[in-house]
Fold:
Amino acid sequence: MGFYDTHVLPRLINLVCGIGAIRPSRDRACEGLHGRVVELGFGSGHNVESYPGAVTRVDAVEPSDLGWKLAHDRVSASPIHIERSGLDGEHLPFDDDTFDCALSTYTLCTIPDLPLALAEVRRVLKPGGTLHFLEHGLAPDEKVRRWQHRLDPLQQRLAGGCHLNRDIPQILTDAGFVVERLDTFYQPHAAKSSNAMSRGVATPR
Structure:
């Protein structure tokens, strides 16, 4: 990874993902989390204040050292034990049936081999476990989709491999999940091409 990806991009993501308008969606995505949770793409910890009291521990999967450093104050202030426990969503360093829940926000857009990562999530979830997600992806409107397809190569270069046009609900279904709850919407006051949102809960079949 170059200087931009290592030292600049995590700071940009921290700023963009820390926008206050996103907070209600983060809160909604975290509803129902309980027990031991694995969070993919922990970033700089913007979900920490949204964890419900029923969460007992969070294992943070985060590849960026700087992202984890930027999360320090949020992690330290949390009453919930949070530990950086992995670097790569495609190879989770946990035993089968370890977690009650998994959480992913603004992460499934970027993982290179997403089917492999979702297979790993299924493996480490306990029977009856749930995956809670808040992700941007393929828009419902064809005009916006056309722009997403045009802009996607540039987005990947500028945003660390982030895709604009992944159909997150369909990818979850193809990976063996049942999407039990799904809200689709455009994030208000933001570009539709990068803010066509899917928020919900999925369970392994």
Observations:
- Helices lie at 3-17, 23-30, 65-70, 72-77, 114-124, 142-158, 168-174.
- Residues 173 and 179 are 7 Å apart (CA to CA).
- The beta strands are 35-40, 55-61, 81-86, 99-105, 125-136, 177-186, 196-204.
